[in-house]
Structures are given as C-alpha cells and as structure tokens.
Design a protein that fits this description.
With 644 residues, the protein is α/β, with parallel strands linked by helices. The protein has 2 domains: 357 residues, Histone deacetylase domain (Arginase, Chain A, 3-Layer(aba) Sandwich); 213 residues, Roll (Hypothetical upf0131 protein ytfp), CATH 3.10.490. It contains 21 helices and 18 strands. Strands 2-1-3-8-7-4-5-6 form an 8-stranded parallel β-sheet, with helices on both faces. A 6-stranded mixed β-sheet has the order 10-15-9-18-17-16. A two-stranded antiparallel ribbon has the order 11-14.
Length: 644
C-alpha cells in the first residue's frame, strides 16, 4: 500500500449471492450486482490496495437494537426447510420482498459485515471501509422487511456503535443516504434520536416515487429531542445529476455537518441515481459520486463507512463503487468535470429544505442569493419506456457512458444565459397544446387507471419494475369512458424494462369488423398526450418541441395514422386515429403496419404476457366494469394465443 494511501477496508462474501428471487431471474436485486462490483475491483487492482475481509454474520442481540423479536424470528427462520412452500406466500405479505433458501444467511452476513467494518473504523484499525453487501437495508423498518431490504444494515451498525461500544467514544453519527429512494426505515429508527443526524437525498416526485407517501418529504424533520436531526431533500423529478447533488451538498449537507461535528459517517451508498440505472431515472456520474464523497472526508477525521444499498445497472454500479474507493484511498476525487447547472426545481427544493430547518441549524438561516439560484438549467424530460429494449442494457451503458455524460452536460453548459430565456424553450408549444383536449384510447396496461396515472403523475404500480417520471402537467383526466373498436389485440416482444419478461399489448393498425378490442379512453390535453407518447417510446429526449403537434392533429383524420419520427425506434410511435367522441379526436399509439409483417414472419417474436402484466389488464377491465374477472382472463388469453 502506498505511503500516502489510507487503510481502507473492503468486505465481500460470495455467500450473499445465495439470496435471489426463485421466480424471477431478471429481478433487479440479484447476485450479479455484487459480483460485477467485485469483478471490477479485482480487475482494476483495487482489492490489492485494500484490507480485504470476509463477511461475518450479525448476532441477534445486535439486530435487536433496531428490529423487533418477531422480525428477527422471521428472517432467521425464513430459509428453513419447514417453511418450504409457504415462503412465497409469506413474502407476498410484504412490499417488494422475495425469499429463498439463502435469504437468512445473506441477511445476517449483510448486516454483520457492515457492523464489522464500522467497528474496525471506529476503533482506528481502519481509516475507512466499503461493505459490498446485499440484500440492502435502508427500507427495512423495525418490524417489516420491504423494498428488497431484510435487515437495516446501516441502522444496526449505528446503534451498535452508540449503545454497545461506549468505549470507542462514538457519540454522534452522520448517516448520509444517497440512494435514489428514500431511506424510510433508517429515518424511523432514529426519528427522535439527536445522536444521529440522518440525511437523505432522493426522488420523491411529490410522494409518487417509491416508497411513496410523505415520509420522504422535507417537512419530516424529526421530533422530540430528535427534532431537526432528520433532513430530507426530495427531488420533484428525475434526471437530477452531478450539479443537482453537489448543490445540495454545498447548500445543505456540508454546512449542517460542520455544525453537527460527527464522530463517524455511515453512508447508505445506493447507486441507483447513477447514469443508466433502470429504476432511478437520475444522472449521477462516477465523478459526481467521487466529489460527493470527497467533500465528506473533511469530517470525523475521514472515518467513513460505506454500505451498498441499491443500484441495478451492473456497469454503472461497478464504476461508481470503484470511483468511491479510489477517493477513500487517495483522498481526492477521480478525474472528471461537470459544467452543468442544477435544475430550477433543485434550487426550489433546496430553499424549502433550508427554510424548514433554519430554526435548528444556524448556517441555513440565510436565503440563497439570486445570483446563486439563477445558475440553473431547464428541465429536459427523460422517461423510462415500455419500448426500451434492454436485453443488453449494461453493454449499452458500457460503450456509451462517456458519450452519455458529454451529451447531457454539454447542452447544459451551453445554456449559461442571464435572461432566463432558456427556461422557456419548451413553454410555447406546451402552452398551446395544453388548451387542446383529445381522447387517448388505451388497450394495454393503461386500461388500469392507476397504472395510466403513472404516466401523468409519475410512480409505479404493483408488477412494474421501474417507475415513470410522469407528465409536466400532472392534472388527472377530465373524463374517462370505455368503448370497443374493430381492431385485433395481440401480444409481442419478449421483455420490457417496465414489466420484465413477457409480451406486451399491441393493437393491429388495420380495422377488422370481426375483431373487438376493449379500450379505456382518457380525456387529456394534447400536451399530456405528447408526454405519454414520449414515455411509451424512448428513454431520453429533449422535449423542446412536441412529438405530435397541431399539424399532425389536423392531418390525421384523413391520413388515419401519423408516425412520430423523432421516436421512430420506439415500439409505439405510430399514432392511430380511431374517430371522434363528443367532437374530440380519439387517438391511440401502437406499432406500424410493417411491424405486423415482422411479427408474422417470426423476425420479431410473438410472446404471451407475464402474469403481472396480464393481471394489470384484467384488473383494468374488471374495475372499468367491462368484463367479469373470468371474462377478462379469457379475453386476454385468447388475444395472447391466436396467431396473426
């Protein structure tokens, strides 16, 4: 180890790979997450520069510092043979949880490994450490596993240092949670504890982003002696990147950390806010993570323990972890730069957080200057789509990562304007199209109203593997009706990023009097229709102009269909005209006629829908009072089994 390097601990244990979803090999929280990280660290030589340790199982008495006996009994016994076939039924009672024969051991190793490295850093045996562990922990609550998390690893380690190792002199702990999802479990465990300053920066999307609700709101600041020691920075939208996170560091976290003066820092290091993550929808680069970490090294004598939380793009998570360990070793960020400005919404959130916490932290009492907040970027939407073919997502990110960062940062750096005109680039067309109503006719999962509202308000419903960002106009549909149309419903494609394995619904572009498709019609604005069209087709796009404008609307009655050329690689870029209802045009989006030939020839596979996806369609038909559950099931099964 070089003389100017610090003693950095690194813990990994392949036994944690025994925990996996027995029913879904594509589940995002899978063993390849930590395997890819470890492979990256070994190939880059980082493991040779660190103190490598094997995992260690946590003891029940330490877990009991934050979890109930019932919770501990559940996790300890869930992998036993006597549970057997009951395991899936038990998992179904919880939110986003699976169990298998290896879950118990992995959960104990994950928690115990974080406790082990935290103890060694607190003792001074190590300067800092990174625990490459799974399952993650920050969603796990006192009496409930949730969100892929079984035990709350970081919370257990924090309480262990504070309550069981008084001899180490750890009296104040800063927990930084930069996972893209709110650390609801950790927040609740230290809600009234002034010894722990809990800081979480996460997507909130006004309560629609997982785990949902108001727990992640900036108004949740703790209570009793812990009032002011809970800090939430809730993003209003996706696409937040290096500039947004660093603005929060400089104007919220760092000033408060200086006043708090932690004895050690524990980081819930989720990397699902990284570029390319299928669940996060944000844009933090490895360089961004390295700067965020470097800014924290000035506190607690650099005693930092990082514990892996989320992060589901294998390439991004490996690159980000490597960048962070380089910082721990060298005490400086990796090479890179970011010329981007934060979003306008970022400054709005930061000021709201400062206002709410100003009564507790003196450095936050002053309002941000206009000069500071004027350095901002207009919001450019990027949406996760059913059309995005992610058979080889990690390869795509690997090849395009540097280019992707440049493509995002450069337009932002070019927008250094003082008159605010850049912020209104897209406002003109949006203002115009927001005044025009149309009927959006849905035939797939959007027949289920709660799922469709994800495209409007953002978020996800049961069965979806990634959330939607939503429309800029989050107003609910003005009216909802049902109609049938003489078109063929069928299912094709093998897998989507939103639903995982299985086909998704398409509507044959040509009418056929012998066919009948049930469709739920939503009366929305043409602006909202454009945002839905975007979400159905691409991952990212600069919405400075509409995909389907007034000229298209005026021509489609005669042409019957219009291809949204800007997203022509998407599966649903063909806008189809189905007539009028109460004087308003009825539009849907589906494949092109040329795609039908590919489906027939087998060039593109027909495929039955997954159980989760089919159930969403059935639920829409039943709740829409169009068919009984039995009738809806038969309708979907027939559509999926008939050849074109």
């Amino acid at each position: 180890m070089a003389s100017n390097s610090r003693r950095v601990g690194l813990i990994y244990d392949d036994r944690m790979c025994k925990h996996f979803d027995p029913d879904d090999q594509y589940h995002p929280e899978n063993p390849n997450r930590i395997r890819s990280i470890w492979k990256k660290l070994e190939s880059s030589g980082i493991t040779q520069r660190c103190t490598v340790m094997n995992g260690k199982e946590a003891e029940d008495k330490d877990i009991a510092l934050v979890h109930t006996k019932a919770h501990i009994d559940l996790i300890r016994n869930i992998s036993s043979k006597k549970i057997g076939l009951k395991r899936n039924k038990i998992a179904a009672k919880f939110n986003s949880i699976y169990f298998n024969e290896g879950s118990s051991e992995a959960a104990y190793l994950s928690a115990g490994s974080v406790v082990q490295v935290a103890e060694k850093v607190a003792e001074g045996e190590l300067d800092s450490a990174f625990a490459v562990v799974r399952p993650p922990g920050h969603h796990a609550e006192e009496n409930e596993p949730m969100g892929f998390c079984l035990y709350n690893n970081v919370a257990i380690a924090a309480r262990y240092l504070l309550d069981e190792r008084h001899d180490l002199g750890i009296k104040k702990i800063l927990i930084v949670d930069w996972d893209v999802h709110h650390g609801n479990g950790t927040q609740k465990m230290f809600w009234d504890d002034p010894r722990v300053l809990f800081f979480s920066v996460h997507r909130h999307d006004f309560g629609s982003f997982y785990p949902g609700g108001e727990d992640g709101s900036h108004v949740m600041t703790g209570e009793g002696p812990g009032a002011g020691y809970n800090i939430n920075v809730p993003w209003e939208n996706g696409r937040c990147g290096d500039a947004d996170y660093l603005a929060v560091w400089d104007h919220v976290l760092i000033p408060v950390a200086k006043e708090f003066g932690p004895d050690i820092i524990l980081i819930s290091a989720g990397f699902d806010a990284a570029i390319g993550d299928p669940l996060g929808g944000c844009r933090v680069s490895p360089y961004g993570y390295s700067v965020m970490l470097h800014k924290l090294l000035e506190f607690a004598g650099g005693k930092i323990v990082m514990a892996l939380e989320g992060g589901y793009n294998l390439e991004s998570i490996a690159n980000s972890v490597q960048a962070c360990i380089e910082v721990l070793l060298k005490q400086k960020p990796i090479a890179g730069s970011s010329e981007a400005y934060p979003f306008e919404s970022t400054w709005r959130v930061i000021q709201a957080v400062r206002d709410k916490l100003s009564a507790f932290w003196q450095p936050l009492t002053e309002r941000l200057t206009e000069k500071t907040t004027s350095m901002r970027t207009p919001y450019i939407q990027a949406i996760s789509s059913d059309s995005e073919d992610e058979y080889d997502t990690s390869q795509t990110v690997s090849q395009e990562l540097e280019k992707d960062i440049e493509n995002i940062i450069q337009p932002f750096s070019d927008l250094k304007v003082n008159d605010g005109q850049a912020c209104t680039i897209s406002h003109t067309w949006r203002a115009e199209l927001s005044k025009i109503d149309i009927w959006y006719a849905t035939f797939g999962s959007n027949m289920y109203q709660s799922r469709f509202l994800c495209y409007i308000a953002g978020g996800q419903v049961e069965g979806m593997q990634k959330p939607c960002i939503g429309s800029l106009d989050k107003s609910k549909p003005k009216e909802i009706i049902w109609k049938t149309f003489p078109h063929r419903l069928f299912f094709a494609r093998e897998r989507t990023t939103t639903w995982g394995p299985g086909g998704v619904a398409f509507l044959h572009p040509e009418s056929n009097s012998e066919e009948k498709a049930y469709m739920c019609l939503y009366r929305i604005t043409l602006e909202q229709f454009n945002d839905v069209l975007l979400q159905e087709n691409v991952t990212n796009f600069d919405m400075n102009s509409p995909l389907f404008d007034m000229t298209d609307l005026q021509s489609i009655e005669n042409s019957k269909c219009v291809s949204a050329e800007a997203v022509k690689n998407g599966w649903y870029h063909n806008v189809l005209y189905l007539g009028k209802e109460n004087g308003l045009p009825i539009l849907t989006m589906t494949c092109q006629l040329s795609d039908i030939d590919n489906f027939k020839s087998g060039k593109v596979l027909m495929c039955k829908p997954s159980k989760e996806y089919a159930n969403t369609l059935i639920r829409g038909l039943v709740e829409g009072k169009q068919l009984s559950e039995e009738e809806a099931t038969i309708y979907i099964q027939e559509a999926a089994s008939r050849v074109l």
